[in-house]
User: Fold this.
Amino acid sequence: MTGQRDRWAELTGGEAGEKYARRFAQLAASGHDIHGEAAFCAALLEPAARVLDAGCGTGRIAIRLAELGHHCTGVDVDSSMLAVARRDAPTQEWLFGDLSRLDALGLDPDFDLVLAAGNVIPLLVPGTGPTVVGHLAAALRPGGLLVTGMGLDAAHLPLPEPPMTLTEFDDWCTRAGLTLRQRYATWSGDPYQHGCGYAVSVHSRPAS
Assistant:
């Protein structure tokens, strides 16, 4: 652990798992599609791919990707969220860990795709962004993809203002050896334009 609480923990007290799960269950019951992130990632993957869901929360995305035939590992530092994931999908791999210490988990660096959705990046412990992105990049196989989704303004974040810019994030990715491949404004693939309040980014690790 870093000794500091991430912004998510500051917002929730680390006890949001059941509340978060109920929210998405209610959305699904009302007819909303809650699998947009999983569908987006699945379109990028070959069958039976290895996926690391970094900041997996209650496991909603990783569980859906596993239902689609992929091999998913989830990592989160919020034990209340992991408790829900383990209850809902007990046979999947769920790891308790701080993303700034991801290297301490001993994961094989052969993931086809690493996902950080749900504002994982903006909600990191302040100052740890470059380290976390470096660890996520290191978990990828050559040619693997880092997929992220993040709010860029207060309307798309549970924060009064964004803690970093998209330019800063891209710089962290460049320093980690990643190249921006695609960027969208939504998980549905709407085109990204400068000034959008949300960005879905696909960065790739060099193939060799």
